[in-house]
Q: What sequence folds into this?
């Protein structure tokens, strides 16, 4: 993208360097491409396990006692490893969506789901991922080992990677390396041999031509009902639990299926779970006991399970069943939230009291309340691990006491951690002051919070507590609960660093000021029944209907956007309309007073000089209100699309712009939500794209910002250090300008030949006392004949010193300081032309 100030891959003819002004003082120039990185969210660093945000689906423990836990994370899933030192590391999956990632690092690959995980003897981790099974090697490389990504049931008898897998729910690997895949909705278990051939192991499957795999085999001839989880014991037998059968079955090494525990289905739905075998389910449920918690201390075959969805076997052969259902028997709710243990033919409870919640940590596991049991595993010393909603629990084999091994402490939200280590759910409404940026997030379940990133670390400054909104309430202790219609709709920080928070409740907009002592004070809006919206009233006497955004005025005061209008609270506390009118006029109003124009604000931005920018999501425009009150269209033709780069911003096509920000130099950045890009309008009014290739999702960290995949950016802010920070799906990312560096060279007296062109592969010695205006330009022949890609240009200042920019990304070529010369430090793939042009000396 030629012309992009953040992506200066400057195409020029070789003689361009001769155009210098004798005696001019060189200004250090940014040479290179802007890069992109995540600055908040992403779970990219090691995290204390007690700060780990979890929505557990399954877990497994390796022989060293390290716990791997699968968790949903936004639209996808991730897998963490919890090490023995109590820290967790993300080992697979990204937060958000992105490329499949096969053949590369698992931490950059997308997992659409992680409904089950398991390990093999070699330490490979397997993940049930939607319509695939993925494998992560001990070195962290991910690949697909079963499934094409297309739902279905074909492929038996051929390579597993060419077969169709349908929503795998359970995984197990035996000692020989054979993998077993439970497909609950297909009512079967598939087997992938160590050589990679897939077949149906239990249940009725389909071959590549669609014919059934029925036969005399006692396993494949059987009919399963929704097998959900699997495990293999040390003898090679396979244990299966199913949510439709509410039972545990054992598949022996001979392929024969026998019931191990459980009554089976509730009354009225009682066909045996497996046909073709002689055994029948003992006892049988009745309408009275179908959903009850029964059977402890008695025969396992008579025990009632609610919804067994996890299974594990310890070294002694004891079977553990995660029973995670909360069900209704028409008269009351009954919690089936327990972990049961089957030893021989006897069943007992080892964790859970059947009640829903988080209670009993530090006491007997059987007296503790669980939330959502989804998996169970046994550690090398017999300790039991339970995937329970937002926690991983440990039940000591020696004492039976339950403790939390991982899971975020209530109300912490990762405070104090590196911002890149935490989970960010729905960042929006970015704002900043003095290099610190703030954003609204919703990681507190149904409640909104305001998070602050300062010196790379995150903390929560507003929300997350339980107190109702009122003057004097601690900002950190307040609750903005969307369940009752109270959410945070905008934030702003003024030049003094004061934070303002706009909330919405029952169609009534309020703006709160966070005072120096950290409490809330009502700044604008009416708490009572007042409905007066006329100009000239005090802010706390003025009714605001449906606030959509706020922005601080650098001259003092606060802008408040409501439907069809922008109003300003002046420093004297009086409210006046600055743009738009109600009812809205039909004419756009460009060129006239903003107060007579038609505006549809969705977000606001204010330039240091006082220009107000109104982001209009619905009309695909950015409007500008000058300090004199005249409104114009600043960017966007109104056409819904993408186009116009390198041209005038008002002629460009935007698609649902959602945010804007102005930097100190007068450039304006636009979060082009529908185009998955960040656009920039420079001081001359020209628009370019500075981040986002148009591909949706998350990819590209550490690379060129213009090549990155960006996911519907919703807001943007420019920081004093030159970074442009934007909300990108479930994370906050930054466009990082090229690093600037200067060098000073000294040399022995001699003359320099002007206009010479040489090809070098090491150090170019510039002999003589450098004169002012002396230019050294490094370029590489480009694809177009006769042109060169210039990647470094140095020029001496009036004191005869060179200044240059360290440019490490193009072919890893460096310009560095040497006594008497400019050095090319690393190998390059093509000849480099170094052109020396004399200055005024």
A:
């Amino acid at each position: 993208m030629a012309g992009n100030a953040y992506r200066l891959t400057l195409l020029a003819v070789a003689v361009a360097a001769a155009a210098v002004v004798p005696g001019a003082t060189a200004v250090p120039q940014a040479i290179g491409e802007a890069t992109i990185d995540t600055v908040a969210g992403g779970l990219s660093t090691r995290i204390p396990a007690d700060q780990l945000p979890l929505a557990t689906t399954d877990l497994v423990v390796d022989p060293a006692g390290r716990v791997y836990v699968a968790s949903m994370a936004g639209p996808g899933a991730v897998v963490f490893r919890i090490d023995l030192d109590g820290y967790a590391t993300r080992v697979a999956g990204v937060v958000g969506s992105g490329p499949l990632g096969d053949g590369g690092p698992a931490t950059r690959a997308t997992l659409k789901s992680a409904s089950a995980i398991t390990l093999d003897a070699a330490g490979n981790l397997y993940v049930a991922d939607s319509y695939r099974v993925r494998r992560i090697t001990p070195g962290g490389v991910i690949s697909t080992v079963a499934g094409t990504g297309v739902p279905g049931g074909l492929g038996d008898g051929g390579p597993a990677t060419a077969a169709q897998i349908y929503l795998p729910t359970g995984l197990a690997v035996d000692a020989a390396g054979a993998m077993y895949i439970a497909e609950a909705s297909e009512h079967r278990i598939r087997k992938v041999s160590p050589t990679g051939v897939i077949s149906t192991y239990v249940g009725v499957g389909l071959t590549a031509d669609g014919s059934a795999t029925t036969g005399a085999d006692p396993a494949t001839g059987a009919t399963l009902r929704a097998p959900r989880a699997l495990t293999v014991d040390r003898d090679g037998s396979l244990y299966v639990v199913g949510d439709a059968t509410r039972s545990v079955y054992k598949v022996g090494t001979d392929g024969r299926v026998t019931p191990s525990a459980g009554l089976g289905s509730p009354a009225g739905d009682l066909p045996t779970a497996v046909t073709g075998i002689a055994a029948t389910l003992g006892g049988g449920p009745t309408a009275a006991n179908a959903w009850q918690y029964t059977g402890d201390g008695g025969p396992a075959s008579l025990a009632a399970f609610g919804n067994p969805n996890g299974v594990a076997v310890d070294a002694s052969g004891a079977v553990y069943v995660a029973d995670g259902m909360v069900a209704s028997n028409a008269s009351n709710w009954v919690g089936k939230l327990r972990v049961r243990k089957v030893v021989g033919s006897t069943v007992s409870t080892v964790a859970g009291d059947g009640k829903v919640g988080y209670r009993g940590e530090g006491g007997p596991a059987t007296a503790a309340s669980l939330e959502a049991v989804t998996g169970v595993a046994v550690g090398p010393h017999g300790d039991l691990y339970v995937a329970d909603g937002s926690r991983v629990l440990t039940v000591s084999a020696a004492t039976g006491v339950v403790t939390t091994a991982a899971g975020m402490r209530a109300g912490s939200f990762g405070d104090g951690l590196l911002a890149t280590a935490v989970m960010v759910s729905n960042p929006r409404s970015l704002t900043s002051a003095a290099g610190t940026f703030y954003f609204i997030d919703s990681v507190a379940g149904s409640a909104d919070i305001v998070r602050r990133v300062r010196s790379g670390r995150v903390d929560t400054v507003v929300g997350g507590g339980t107190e109702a909104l009122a003057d004097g309430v601690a900002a950190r202790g307040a609750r903005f609960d969307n369940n009752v219609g109270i959410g945070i709709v905008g934030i702003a920080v003024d030049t003094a660093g004061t934070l303002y928070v706009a909330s919405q409740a029952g169609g009534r907009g309020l703006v709160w000021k966070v005072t120096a002592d950290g409490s809330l004070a009502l700044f604008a809006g009416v708490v009572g029944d007042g409905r007066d919206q006329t100009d000239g009233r005090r802010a706390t006497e003025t009714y605001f209907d449906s606030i959509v955004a706020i922005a601080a005025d650098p001259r003092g005061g606060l802008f408040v956007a409501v439907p069809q209008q922008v109003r300003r609270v002046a420093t004297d506390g009086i409210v006046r309309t600055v743009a738009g009118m109600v009812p809205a006029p039909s004419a756009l109003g460009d060129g006239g007073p903003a107060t007579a124009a038609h505006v549809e604000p969705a977000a606001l931005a204010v330039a240091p000089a006082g220009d107000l920018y109104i982001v209009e999501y619905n009309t695909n425009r950015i409007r500008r209100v000058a300090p004199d009150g005249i409104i114009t269209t600043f960017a966007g033709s109104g056409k819904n699309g993408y186009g116009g780069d390198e041209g005038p911003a008002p002629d460009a096509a935007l698609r649902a712009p959602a945010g804007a920000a102005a930097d100190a130099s007068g450039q304006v950045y636009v979060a082009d939500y529908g185009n998955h890009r960040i656009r920039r309008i420079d001081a001359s009014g020209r628009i370019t794209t500075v981040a986002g290739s148009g591909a949706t999702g998350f990819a590209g960290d550490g690379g060129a910002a213009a090549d990155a995949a960006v996911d519907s950016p919703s807001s943007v802010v420019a920081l004093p250090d030159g970074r442009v920070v934007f909300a990108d799906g479930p994370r906050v990312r930054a466009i990082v300008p090229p690093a600037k560096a200067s060098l000073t060279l000294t040399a022995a007296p001699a003359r320099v030949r002007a206009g010479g062109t040489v090809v070098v592969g090491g150090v170019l010695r510039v002999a003589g006392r450098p004169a002012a205006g002396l230019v050294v330009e490094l370029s590489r022949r480009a694809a177009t004949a006769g042109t060169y890609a210039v990647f470094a240009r140095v020029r001496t200042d009036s004191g005869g010193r060179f200044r240059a920019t360290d440019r490490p990304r193009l072919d890893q070529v460096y310009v560095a300081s040497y006594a008497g010369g400019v050095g090319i430090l690393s190998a390059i793939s093509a000849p480099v032309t170094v052109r020396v042009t004399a200055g005024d000396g």
